[in-house]
Amino acid sequence: MQRWWLHLAMVGMGTLACAAASGQPLSCGVVLMHGKWGMPQSPYLKPVVQKLEPHCQVKLLEMPWSRQRLYDLSYTKALAQIREAVAEFRKSGVQWVAVGGQSFGANASLAYMAQVGDADAILPLAPGHVPEVFYQIPDVRRSVDAAHQWVESGKGDTQVEMTDINQGQRRLVKTSAASLWSYFNPQGWGNMGLSAAASRKSVPVFWAIGTLDPLHGSGSTEIYQKLPAHPDSRYWVVRANHANTPEVSADELLAWVKARIGR
After folding, report:
1. Distance (Å, rounded) from C-alpha 188 to C-alpha 147?
2. Looking at residue 66, what DSSP letter applies?
3. Can you state the percent helix, strand and coil of the chain, rounding each to 5?
């Protein structure tokens, strides 16, 4: 399996090199993921999709953190879902594939590059989900610690309840200890700083953050700066909140993507 993915990545890099040498525009695919409790047809991502679709194929995935699924599968399975979408683009001949999303979807794009690393660019828009911060909240910590204990005892299928938090809103969720721990381990894949530092390769990044976003400031810049440097990366600050940052950034994101694919 590992050899197959290595071969696929090498084919993709060879295709990029040939297209660049010929001066022809690259075919473009973008995998986009919604935020916590969202859905694929996210109103927050709709303006981005509308801008991109005339130039790129776009896949919208329903992830395990959607409002219908509420962590029904682990982060490992979530990344496998993204990897399948990227592979489908590659198999159809798409030359340039980006992975991105809003809030938790942005978090997943960072985790994906740390754990899989086969995308050509990442597009974190209003990155969110900070388990290391949530862990400081006593009732969240109790649930996360309980999930960890069940996992350590080999009983990861045990159901655990936790009050989830999303931009000040709260919702009771119930899922397996293994799944909960995979997303809320403060030092796990949901920790964006650790994912950024562990990114498997240097790729161009379009990072958008709003001035009214809770992560704006040192939290956002510190994570971004841990990513491998790339000359085409862009850190884009807009006057927006966590929800409408993708919309406010859509024009600049489109221009950036078009520059990467030669259009």
Report:
1. 13
2. S
3. 45, 20, 35
Residues 6+ apart with CB under 8 A from 175: 70, 71, 72, 159, 160
Residues 6 or more apart in contact with residue 202 via CB below 8 angstroms: 228, 229, 230
pLDDT digits (tens, 9 = 90+) for 44-84: 999 999 999 999 999 999 999 999 999 999 999 999 999 99
Residues 250 and 236: their CA atoms lie apart, in Å, by 11
Question: DSSP H helical segments within 40-176, as ranges?
Answer: 46-52, 75-91, 104-115, 131-134, 138-152
Place of tokens 């953050």: 209
Per the CB < 8 A criterion, the answer to whether 239 and 210 are in contact is yes
Q: Return the amino acid letter for 257.
A: V
Specify the pTM.
0.90
Q: What distance separates the 2 farthest-apart alpha carbons in the chain?
A: 58
Exposure of 114 in the CB half-sphere (CA atoms within 13 A): 21
Residues counted in the chain? 263
DSSP 240: -
Residue with tokens 């650790």: 194
The separation between CA 122 and the C-alpha centre of its own chain, rounded to angstroms, equals 8
